[in-house]
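Contributing new records

If you add data, match the layout below exactly. Sequence lines come first and carry their own label; structure lines follow with theirs. Keep one chain per record. Anything else will be rejected by the validation script.
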Amino acid sequence: AKIRARVPHQKIMAMVKADGYGHGLVNVVSALKDADAFGVACLEEAVALREAGVKNRVVLMSGFYDAPSELPLILELNLELAIHHEGQVNDLKIFETRSDNAIPVWIKINTGMNRLGFQCDQVHTVFEMLNQCPLVKHQGFITHFASSEEMDNVGTTAQIDRFFQTVKALPGEKSLANSAAILGMPASHADWVRPGILLFGVSPYPGRVGRDEDLTAVMTLQSELIAIQSLKAGEAVGYGGEYVCKKDTRIGVVAAGYGDGYPRSMPTGTPLLVNGHIVPLVGRVSMDMLTVDLGSQPEAKIGDPVQLWGPDLPVERVAAAAGTSAYELLTRLAKRVPFEMC
């Protein structure tokens, strides 16, 4: 709703790839039924949406990989394709089908990301080739930014200009804006915007958190204290003894580790919340447990709640401490972590 308030004239393609950015694909789409379309990374995700009863438009953002096995299912499920290389165009041209359906296609344009997409000087030719293909219903145009999280980035401005110069004489819907561009680049809004991380209450900008964008974090990752050790100054904690207590202190053991998706690389000092108060991670993260310094929380006891991130401890702050991104932390959660919808 807050995204719609920012872009009232655009359609919204909600990006729900990577299991809904780690939030659970079906959970996410159930909460986003008003989205004009959903964007997914692979056919398996699209199938899961249709099996969950989703009727919205669904776009395969990388297109297809094996035409004979995938195109019949794409037709059956009424999916859309973003295509990005000539092999996909040729497959669409030669594919034979008895279906009365056809496939809406988005032509992905490489405006500077240099990952996927047709070069700008190829786009008109690709458009005409697809225009002669009976399997293609209609065509739109899409691109992706390399540095939109950097405000006033001249490279992003160049990508916007390159895109519109390329498609100015071509009919079809246009889509450029990701989460950062929705917030800071009105010139990129076009016909469709494609929010991803914003949907989950997380800022796409370095040094900012969701509440800075008037958003609330969707996910709270929570566990509890399962043990407390009273250690003397000079005693080491955990594998390798990497952390040595500087003074007598209480060390709390939390039931969470890299087997749950909390990175092993998290450094000592990474913040966690025990009973709503910041405590530092100490020592090496284990597969099933991690340890925190409870020196500032003398009343903490076994069973007390521990928040690894959430509305009171932004995942952006945790990611910054670990030298990674909120995207990675959210999407790497393991299947064994139980989900509870609130």
